[in-house]
Amino acid sequence: MRLFNNQNVLSRTVALIGALFMLHTVAVEEASAQSRIKDITNFEGIRDNLLVGYGLVVGLNGTGDDIDDAVFTRESLIGVLQRLGVNARDDDLDTNNVAAVMITANLPPFARQGTRIDLTVSAIGTAENLQGGTLLVTPLMGADGEVYAVGQGPVAINGFAAAGNAETITRGVPTVGRISNGAIVEREIDFDLKELQSIKIALRNPDLTTARRIAQVINAKLGGNPAVSTDPSTVQLKVPERYKGDTVAMLTDIEQLQVSVDTPAKVVIDEKSGVIVIGNDVRISTVAIAQGNLTIRITETPQVSQPNAFSNTGNTEVVDRTDIQVEDDSDRRLAVLPSGVTLQEVVSGLNALGVGPRDMIAILQSIKAAGALQADIELL
């Protein structure tokens, strides 16, 4: 056995191992930055459809609509009872165990007859709580006015309400509930996916670079040039000859492909909550920033002045004592952010100034106004 005593050989070996480790790390980071096509796009025809309906929830414990105030609840209840053979046209009709509600649901793509879907039930009258109620059979219609599902079942709510003589407490929203598997699909949406000759792939976040990359990845997988990016949000894909009549197999093959997603430089600001989100590609040109607040604090400390004991002269008086303090943040200094700083450097530089989210919003808007922020600002 020969031992390696050459220090240079050992050094080169260590350097090679380090280089391989760095290449592996870079490869892992690049792979982790990619996304599957199915996670960033929608395929034509594979989408939900919205359903809506109007119905009645019964069985409430005195927390339903006031029949005298909610005319639509009264008329709906009378109509339901008459269809069941009960004559309810009486001025004495009075109940608070019924609530008029709107029902909303999502019809999944390619849902077949007999499939069950979830329902969301929302009170539209004066009902205070839907706990314990049961939705009567209700048709659910699509945007075309056709009935696609029928719902019924007990309503489950997440919130609650409790009241006493002097205090009321409400947790969550007791006038909104859900019915799991509460509707049965009665009508299917006719759409033949497998016979399509071409299909549109829509990007959830439109971007020219990402759309072109998707087309390139698909072409590399299928061969030829069946995919073309027509605009920032659409990739037009022509079904190759070997996939004719089997579009599902083609979509299965391409939806797992990895694509590097490119995003525009953007700063999103929610002024109501003070939330700031800065994109990774945001850059700032050379700019100097100073931030300071003038704070004047006035404290009133009244004192009582009274004459000495057993004195026949003088009166007891309240004497004002005022303390005024002025803080102008004179310890704050002008900070310079060099050209081309990264996201981390932007955050570190602003944090070094000791500013909070509210002041940071004003600073970012001022930098944008000065033309030094190379990104768009979106206000929510």
TrEMBL record:
<dbReference type="Pfam" id="PF02119">
    <property type="entry name" value="FlgI"/>
</dbReference>
<feature type="signal peptide">
    <location>
        <begin position="1"/>
        <end position="27"/>
    </location>
</feature>
<keyword id="KW-0282">Flagellum</keyword>
<keyword id="KW-0966">Cell projection</keyword>
<comment type="subunit">
    <text>The basal body constitutes a major portion of the flagellar organelle and consists of four rings (L,P,S, and M) mounted on a central rod.</text>
</comment>
<comment type="similarity">
    <text>Belongs to the FlgI family.</text>
</comment>
<protein>
    <recommendedName>
        <fullName>Flagellar P-ring protein</fullName>
    </recommendedName>
</protein>
<keyword id="KW-0975">Bacterial flagellum</keyword>
<keyword id="KW-0574">Periplasm</keyword>
<keyword id="KW-0969">Cilium</keyword>
<keyword id="KW-0732">Signal</keyword>
<comment type="function">
    <text>Assembles around the rod to form the L-ring and probably protects the motor/basal body from shearing forces during rotation.</text>
</comment>
<dbReference type="InterPro" id="IPR001782">
    <property type="entry name" value="Flag_FlgI"/>
</dbReference>
